[in-house]
């Protein structure tokens, strides 16, 4: 189906770690049609397809503050600690994160300990 150029091409968010792909409607810190929401970071946002409420939206992901890689908000892909970090950068700089974060990450990866030693 050929569409006229009046409709802008749909922008797609792609997580570079898990491959999640989803169209997004907005990138930034203050999604449109929301009254007083300011996000902690610039991120990819889409309208919640399951909610009739215009103010409902979903945060799909963001760019890693270190390497700029596009990652989704899943705990396997990124971590938000004052800024967004992709898991590759988190693992690279793990010693610079507080012990609390390190402990949380260790909990999430039950098999990782066996690989060390
Ligand atoms: Zn992902
Ligand atoms: Zn990164």
Automatic annotation (TrEMBL):
<dbReference type="Pfam" id="PF10170">
    <property type="entry name" value="C6_DPF"/>
</dbReference>
<comment type="similarity">
    <text>Belongs to the CDPF1 family.</text>
</comment>
<dbReference type="InterPro" id="IPR018785">
    <property type="entry name" value="CDPF1_dom"/>
</dbReference>
<feature type="domain" description="Cysteine-rich DPF motif">
    <location>
        <begin position="13"/>
        <end position="105"/>
    </location>
</feature>
<protein>
    <recommendedName>
        <fullName>Cysteine-rich DPF motif domain-containing protein 1</fullName>
    </recommendedName>
</protein>
<dbReference type="InterPro" id="IPR042426">
    <property type="entry name" value="CDPF1"/>
</dbReference>
């Amino acid at each position: 189906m050929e569409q006229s150029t009046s409709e802008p091409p749909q922008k797609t968010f792609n997580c570079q770690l898990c491959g999640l792909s989803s169209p997004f409607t907005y990138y930034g810190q203050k999604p449109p049609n929301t009254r007083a929401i300011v996000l902690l970071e610039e991120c990819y946002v889409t309208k919640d397809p399951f909610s009739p409420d215009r103010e409902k939206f979903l945060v799909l992901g963001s760019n890693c503050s270190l390497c700029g890689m596009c990652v989704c908000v899943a705990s396997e892909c990124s971590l938000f600690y004052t800024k967004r970090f992709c898991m590759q950068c988190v693992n690279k700089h793990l010693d610079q994160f507080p012990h609390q974060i390190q402990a949380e990450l260790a909990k999430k990866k039950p098999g990782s300990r066996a690989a060390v030693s």
